[in-house]
Automatic annotation (TrEMBL), chains A, B, C, D:
One of its GO terms (molecular function) is pyridoxal phosphate binding. Its EC number is 2.6.1.76. InterPro entries: Aminotrans_3, Aminotrans_3_PPA_site, Dat, Ectoine_EctB, PyrdxlP-dep_Trfase, PyrdxlP-dep_Trfase_major, PyrdxlP-dep_Trfase_small. It comes from the Bacteria. The keyword Transferase applies. Pathway: Amine and polyamine biosynthesis; ectoine biosynthesis; L-ectoine from L-aspartate 4-semialdehyde: step 1/3. Its cofactor is pyridoxal 5'-phosphate. This is Diaminobutyrate--2-oxoglutarate transaminase. GO terms for biological process: ectoine biosynthetic process.
Amino acid sequence: MTTSTSTMPIFKRRESDARSYCRGFDTVFTSARNAEMTDAQGRTYIDFLAGCSSLNYGHNDPDMKAALVDYIMDDGVAHGLDMHTGAKGAFIETFETHILKPRSMDHKLMFVGPTGANAVEAAIKIARKSTGRTNVIAFTNGFHGVTQGALAATGNSYHRGGAGAPLSGVTRLPYDGYMGKDVDTADLLEQMLLDASSGLDAPAAILLETVQGEGGLNAASGPWVRRIAELAKKHGALLIIDDIQAGCGRTGSFFSFDDMDVQPDIVTMAKSLSGFGLPMGLVLVRADHDVMGPAEHNGTFRGNNHAFVTARVAIEKFWSNDTLKTDIKRRAKLIEDGLKTIADMVPGAYLKGRGMMRGVDVGSGDLAGAICAEAFENGLIVETSGPNDEVVKILAPLTIEDGTLAKGLDILIQAAAAKTETTKIAAE
Amino acid sequence: MTTSTSTMPIFKRRESDARSYCRGFDTVFTSARNAEMTDAQGRTYIDFLAGCSSLNYGHNDPDMKAALVDYIMDDGVAHGLDMHTGAKGAFIETFETHILKPRSMDHKLMFVGPTGANAVEAAIKIARKSTGRTNVIAFTNGFHGVTQGALAATGNSYHRGGAGAPLSGVTRLPYDGYMGKDVDTADLLEQMLLDASSGLDAPAAILLETVQGEGGLNAASGPWVRRIAELAKKHGALLIIDDIQAGCGRTGSFFSFDDMDVQPDIVTMAKSLSGFGLPMGLVLVRADHDVMGPAEHNGTFRGNNHAFVTARVAIEKFWSNDTLKTDIKRRAKLIEDGLKTIADMVPGAYLKGRGMMRGVDVGSGDLAGAICAEAFENGLIVETSGPNDEVVKILAPLTIEDGTLAKGLDILIQAAAAKTETTKIAAE
Amino acid sequence: MTTSTSTMPIFKRRESDARSYCRGFDTVFTSARNAEMTDAQGRTYIDFLAGCSSLNYGHNDPDMKAALVDYIMDDGVAHGLDMHTGAKGAFIETFETHILKPRSMDHKLMFVGPTGANAVEAAIKIARKSTGRTNVIAFTNGFHGVTQGALAATGNSYHRGGAGAPLSGVTRLPYDGYMGKDVDTADLLEQMLLDASSGLDAPAAILLETVQGEGGLNAASGPWVRRIAELAKKHGALLIIDDIQAGCGRTGSFFSFDDMDVQPDIVTMAKSLSGFGLPMGLVLVRADHDVMGPAEHNGTFRGNNHAFVTARVAIEKFWSNDTLKTDIKRRAKLIEDGLKTIADMVPGAYLKGRGMMRGVDVGSGDLAGAICAEAFENGLIVETSGPNDEVVKILAPLTIEDGTLAKGLDILIQAAAAKTETTKIAAE
Amino acid sequence: MTTSTSTMPIFKRRESDARSYCRGFDTVFTSARNAEMTDAQGRTYIDFLAGCSSLNYGHNDPDMKAALVDYIMDDGVAHGLDMHTGAKGAFIETFETHILKPRSMDHKLMFVGPTGANAVEAAIKIARKSTGRTNVIAFTNGFHGVTQGALAATGNSYHRGGAGAPLSGVTRLPYDGYMGKDVDTADLLEQMLLDASSGLDAPAAILLETVQGEGGLNAASGPWVRRIAELAKKHGALLIIDDIQAGCGRTGSFFSFDDMDVQPDIVTMAKSLSGFGLPMGLVLVRADHDVMGPAEHNGTFRGNNHAFVTARVAIEKFWSNDTLKTDIKRRAKLIEDGLKTIADMVPGAYLKGRGMMRGVDVGSGDLAGAICAEAFENGLIVETSGPNDEVVKILAPLTIEDGTLAKGLDILIQAAAAKTETTKIAAE
């Protein structure tokens, strides 16, 4: 690979060492369309990362693009704090019509600072204020962001260490499946909730992802999530589902919990919500827990009007009928087949995740990393996940053309073959 | 005012009660240009709020707008996580050329989640990691955001109460002028730092705004800031200047501390950085404190490429020569004169702030609120500030046309006259 | 019962509502000898509470009493801060000879404020300072005291609630047996320690009781404790065994872990250490973790010289040969037989604890309370334990005469019979 | 000095490095009477330390001693948890008669674990529970103990560092006189309480010592304490006076605040309360703040019956008439004169404290330490105080014979003369 020579030296000279993805994908990208990105040398890459699930509808969707350009050309309000704007009103109406009403959700929309972490921070504050309690239950391998409140709920030790100070206010419990197939970890939660001497302080909230995107694509079962929801309700805690990475269609339906027969008290959203990759954060909160006073959780960029424009188009285009859901189902099968091929190459490897949030645990971070690096050499952007980066994770745009998906899977399978072959040879 | 009848009911029905600015400015805005906003009824308002200093260059600057539309039309990368993009590289180069180099700053650029709060969270984490200490010194009336780490440093009790849990890790000390003219509050800081039994834990950082935008436009003197900087250095703490609201020209120069002969270890930026009101956050950190590892402080929207495009244009257009600085100086004088007229109407009232970050303390939140409400009736968007909202605050775009500025000041003066007259009559 | 009329009104008038044991045992005690207490009316009670295991050698042991009176008569130093005294030196030498040397323990003696809670606070501080970590792992149903640091490690929600503020710095995990017989809870600990994304911060210490005295007489198995010890060692955490209630012979040997083949890094002691019921606290810490500097953990009453005098006699009299151990074994069997008789009366009841730290779980706090109240009417002091006070707990002096023990057990059995009969009748 | 050769090696071999006073006073004490201690070699020392104010009535007072021995000989209850005992009842009645009633105090007595730190921990918990707030205001140079809750309120950085973790829940403000004579530090407290944006969370309690025993004998003025009391009341905070070191006559009256016209909501007591140097802790709490439920703040040694016996005698003997008060006044004058003599030897030296809680600030810890070491060589036990140990502190028994006091002062003056002479010579 010769792209590194073309990388502008300005990044090395002036960008903080905290930069990360650019290290693994060491080129300068300039343009992108649906599932493909092009760099300054004109080379095109298939994108199986999709902004970590922020580009579920691909790059530069033409309809969103047109609407956004029109809005800008008309001097539409770009920044209006949290004042009413036409763009905001139109988004809320669309969201109500296509998302909330069909699900009989009475939730209010609370626009927060345009990041997922901000949505999680707000959700935790709402739960604490609404219940008068402080303890938040979060799970092993959960990832909820790196600002102090969200980071306390995040499991990853590398990120936690970045705090430089102890994190508090969160009790950690084992996620579904963490103790093996024979143990229902909800039993432990229930016992600790019932036991007046367990040391578990009465929780303000139980916070979970239905699929742990950063934690290794662990997918909770519907019954487990439903039981957690019941325990939350019974013990006066709010159920917060962090749908930042798993939401917006990633698992096959708009919300990741659509088929689980639960109604969370709070849902956090960000990433693909704007549809176009623009920063946007949102908290959905049941009307009776909508307890934050005016500006009590404030912020300058609550309400990114450009994002409202594209988000509205995204909902209308993709969630007013079932076309996308059908597409996802078909593509998910293709991905599953591809990953099974890889799993067959690595003893002990197994598939993880669900919908188009899938991966294969190849048992070691070194191997997974090598496969991804090899794939990038061959024109595919794909990343690892999991506590030890041992999962090769596919987060392709939901809108990826079937042919491009097949091509990307081929590259990945070849990369896996090359690296497992290498490993075998080295071992011999 | 009849605008309320035209407000779309969707907001009331579905937007969280946490919404705030829309309550005082109860109409639906649709378009905006430089210092004027237009609502759905076609009514135009002069904007003395400017997105709380997020729109220093006005709404929809034509050069930024053109560059942004071109970028979108060319399918420029909208979202690329923190991968290298051409837009990012160009921004960094421009920022280095026009901002860092002329000031001999060796700082690195750390792109963080696109909010000011995220920049503050990152800054605190950097300071803690770099020093191995946890205590952060912040000041009375400081405002740094409402996520848990930033909120601990924020003074406002209403926002602090929103946490629903005790906040820790911050020691609060009196800001410049807090104890009256005869007491240099830096003396107290110094004594506590020197005293092994003061109870002040060795600080990781001292965090301050040079002008407290939300805290009532208190402006610290240069000598005080310099002394704090020296104390920080002597005692091994990092000096963090939160320039989110006061930066980007608001006080007359790019950084609010440009004339103070201090070089902060860390500067936090957001609000007007993108130039166009798009979400963007940035931490400037001296190279030797650039200690965060790859992705240690991560986030999906680090690197809003649309914002990079407009931010580059903003720097090039406004900070490659002294035109804007000259304009600010002239306009600041107009504002000062206008505010003096108001101050003369209210016994005990006095001016606050500096540059184009000015206000008048009218002694009561009720009066200040009444003035702003009256002004809005007459076509001016203007807000209050301070612990009891007792300061009428002007944050007009730096680029406001002189005529528009004069017109806005007239509306404000008339509003003040009407409300002080009312008060007098009521008192008689 | 008519004793309440004899209770001095001064207690009700002036003693805080925080008083507790005096409510269940509502009389005024004046004198006591070995296993019997006498009240102001001259009524004598058998003592199956023994100061919650603070009077393992009974009340007013004649040898300790004689030595103490001699010491006082000779104007022995009563209070000497932590200066060297003859009484202290003699105690340490005796403790070294009969306790430490036979076990090849290199531990240092750190005299702390004369309470168990203070010993736990010191132990936690030592672990944090020695490891540079802050997280302490404690277990469900653990009880370690009610000062802020110790209370964070205590599981009981009533006591935790008394803090009036969130408690932090402790991770709670399930104790041995908490998840039923089929789950080894050490597996969960191990997995979380190995998993870089479990959210379990690297622990400074693992803190446990081998038998949970307040938590319901749950007894950990030797293999479980040994495995915890191994995990602590492997992962750089200190093992703290809180032997405050279970130590000093209560389970059959001087330390409760004597037969478990583990050597804790830190042991906390109090309660029966002085032998005479006098306040005394002690931390045993391995020499290489003896990291507290001079007075870094200080306190006025470190070193209660009267307690040193009686503690020395206690060690010499009871731990220089095996007589007491033999006695405990025999008495423990008598207690076990008596409790089995009670267990047979209550469907589902079962025995808990080990050694002379035994009880019977009768399934409900109401029934257990009723049995204890009935027993007190008939001259027996006995208390409940457990998260819902559902365990009738026997903590008789280890030195109780066999006849007195039998008599006390008879009273308890009769009380259980009466109350279970009542329950049956009521149920019919 | 040759005493070190006579020190038993057991201390060095087995006592923790945390031991402290024994380092400066390196001999083995065996007996003591009033103001004199005798070591194993038969050497007698005058005691100007008095157990850090724990022996206000001297060592082994004959009346207390007689009562205690009688009690023990009669098999009086030594340990009864917090059950009613005759000894406890008699103490409470005496305390009510001679201490509470004459001051019209309606306070309840809450017996806590027998240390001052435990009393402070309980006081903070009461305040938090009673107010529903968590923040506690404490002052520069305050010392309240080293368990986690109390340590958070303690100013000393060496002790704070011993926590090994950040301490929270306390806001630190400058004590009376901290900012020089021209600044009333209560002004800062008032302003921060009134300012909704000061960052000072509404306090549960304001905690202070009227004379800071460990912090350098800083004495607050009556008006300052009164103003703090008024601010506490006005802002819904409880006033906690920590009278552990300054109480029991040390400043001239039973409580250190007797002449200040304030009535604290809570008073913490320990040290000299038992009269005999036995461990005892007590919280006095106004009836309407007596909110702790039964055993909510519990502990094994609440209620040290031996201490009740001696404490009762102490109250009866010393506080049923004014003899001791008269004696203290006279002896305080002698001490003041002696310290003035020393102050005259050291440029810049000045007296600190009040009553028989006095010292001289000699400007350097080295000099103060050298004076104390020299004094010990010559038969006087005396210690330093202050953030840098720069104060030579006299805490002689209140009952010291005038002749012994004079003799001790002579030794101290000679030591000061020798060391200042040395310093002068060295400087020349």
